[in-house]
Amino acid sequence: MKTLMMNVQSYLPEKALRNSCILLATLALQSTAFAQQPAPAPRMTDGHPDLSGVWWTGGDLGSPGYNSSRKNDTAPPSYTALYKPEAAERLATLHDKDDPTLQCKPTAFGTLNIRLFDVGAIGQIVSTPDMMVFLQETFHGYQLIPTDGREHRAVPPSFRGDAVGHWEDDTFVVETSNFTDDTWIHAEGRISFHTDQLRVVERYRRPDANTLLVDATVYDEGVLTEPWVVPTQTLVIAPFDQLLPLICTGVETQQLMDDAAELAD
After folding, report:
1. Cβ–Cβ contacts within 10 Å for residue 112, how many?
2. Cα separation of 218 and 220, whole Å?
3. Is there a contact between 136 and 142 (Cβ–Cβ < 8 Å)?
4. Residue 17 and residue 242: Cα distance in Å, rounded?
5. pTM of the prediction?
């Protein structure tokens, strides 16, 4: 019995010590995890998330971080795979040299499947309760988006269309229509024409201070058999607060057009 009591007495302190070590380790892990948690999304004076910031996929084209934020995102299906037969026939007649961006025209959507980027790989949002300002680094691109869900303006069609937004809880929904029919959905020779029936619906969410989630659906009954759905794309905040402009002129692109024409011949 004496031996048993000694064993119990020696066991209890050891067990208590072990439990204390486990508790301390757990607290340390929780503290580290808490420290690594991103800050909550900032909010505007009206209570909605503030989407302001320069957004990219983790780096510029060619940099080590490029596209790192989208490594787990689902790639969208091919836009042209949804073409109607007559559109597919026209597709076969076009080449790189026909890319409208060679004439310094923007895309109607975006080469990287992010409309905020247009032809580039980065975009900026200036968020206010009444108006969103979307800025692109390419071709001095911008879009003003009222947030009150008003009717679209009766204005002439444009390359980037007329955009109107509204909030659904913490999601900012943008509907863009009234496009010209002389741009492509993508650039860089990715043939992707559309008609003036094009309509784009995007949904923007900022779950935390560092992350912007974007979903998009593209409708065009003139050429598509069904809507083209772009799954959620994940963007992260860039470590700077201003874009640099990427200027385009016909003089600069003429050699590109000549080279593309030679490849098509």
Report:
1. 23
2. 7
3. yes
4. 54
5. 0.83
Token reading at 15 = 């067990």
Close Cβ partners of 205 (under 8 Å, ≥ 6 residues apart)? 49, 170, 171, 172, 212, 213, 214
Amino acid at 113: N
Residue 139 CA to residue 160 CA, distance in Å, equals 12
Q: Are 165 and 173 in contact (CB under 8 A)?
A: yes
Residues 41-93 have pLDDT tens digits of: 999 999 999 999 999 999 998 899 999 999 999 999 999 999 999 999 999 99
The HSE-up count of residue 158 (CA atoms within 13 Å, CB side) is 13
- Domain-by-domain residue ranges, the chain? 1-37, 53-264
d(CA 226, CA 35): 45
φ/ψ (deg, to 5) at 18: -65, -45
Question: Does the pLDDT at position 253 exceed 80?
Answer: no
Residue type, 69: S
Angstrom CA distances, 226 to 10, 202, 218, 222, 223, stand at 74, 17, 9, 10, 9
- Which backbone phi and psi does 132 adopt, to 5 degrees? -100, 140
SS3 29: helix
